[in-house]
Amino acid sequence: MRTPFVAGNWKMNKTIAETRDLVSAMSSKLREISGVEKVLCPPFMSLAAAFALLEGSGIGLGAQNMHWEEKGAFTGEVAPGMVKELCGYVILGHSERRAYFGETDEIVHRKLIAAQKFGLTPIVCVGETLEQYESNQTREVVTRQTSLGLKGVSAEFAPRIVVAYEPVWAIGTGRASTGEAANVVIKDFIRPAIAELYGEQAAQAIRVLYGGSVTGANAAEFFSQPDVDGALVGGASLKVDDFVQIVSQSKS
Ligand code: PEP
Questions:
Q1: Does the global pTM surpass 0.85?
Q2: Closest-CA residue to 219 (of 58, 50, 64, 36)
Q3: Closest ligand 1 atom to the C-alpha of 94?
Q4: Less packed terminus of the chain by CB within 10 Å, N or C?
């Protein structure tokens, strides 16, 4: 039995003051929803403000990225130990990081190892581009990203990993995949790749989310699928009612 999981990726939106307003508006409503792990991922600058408001609320806090090194001459970067001071979670390998900041599977893997070392729950994103989708490369791409990104952690840590299947063509486009299609990718491509690394038990224990234009209106379609354990939500996570509606539909 996998506990449902919903995370909101705010991307590069909301100042510190705006974060306080949005977290305050959301947290009282989110607190009332049980049976689902809920995580907010504001920008780095807003994490401390969100942390102060969320402490003791049962709502988790996540970073959208981090560096893999513990410290040093990496101007502009944030180290895993710094993330850990405020967060329990970290998004790794988001397609925007891969596309705009050159993140490779090897980099995602290094960050995963750092997450293990610092006790952070990683939310590892995988997914094919439109071009790859149209040329039937989905299986190859998500299998490669899962195998290379997730390899090399301990048997104890592996079940803690959360994977987000996010077809790039569905992110921020309003063109969501279908529940059925997402379920096929997760069940037939992603879980088998995890099973290759850590065995069938771990593959069945790991939460795999769908992400890509999830809204309050279409979330139920994804959550009704047996292999979809929740959602990574971008745009709709900035809207109180939409995000609360998504979270409330995900609960077990
Ligand atoms: C995302 O950023 O991970 C995402 C899924 O965005 P959106 O929900 O806006 O498509």
A1: yes
A2: 36
A3: 3
A4: N
Q: Tell me how far the alpha carbon of residue 234 lies from the centroid of ligand 1, in angstroms.
A: 3
The torsion angles phi and psi of 11, rounded to 5 degrees, stand at: 50, -145
Per-domain residue ranges for the chain? 5-249
Classify domain 5-249 by CATH architecture: Alpha-Beta Barrel (3.20)
Stated as kind and residue range, the H or E segment containing 30 is helix 16-31
Q: Is 196 helix (H, G, I), strand (E, B) or coil?
A: helix
SS3 helix, strand, coil % of the chain, rounded to 5?
A: 50, 15, 35
In DSSP notation, 212-239 reads SS--TTTHHHHHTSTT--EEEESGGGGS
pLDDT at position 252 is 66
Active-site residues, by number, are: 94, 166
Kindly state if the Cβ of 235 falls inside 6 Å of ligand 1: yes
What are the residue ranges in the chain where pLDDT is below 50? none
Residues 105-158: pLDDT tens digits?
A: 999 999 999 999 999 999 999 999 999 999 999 999 999 999 999 999 999 999
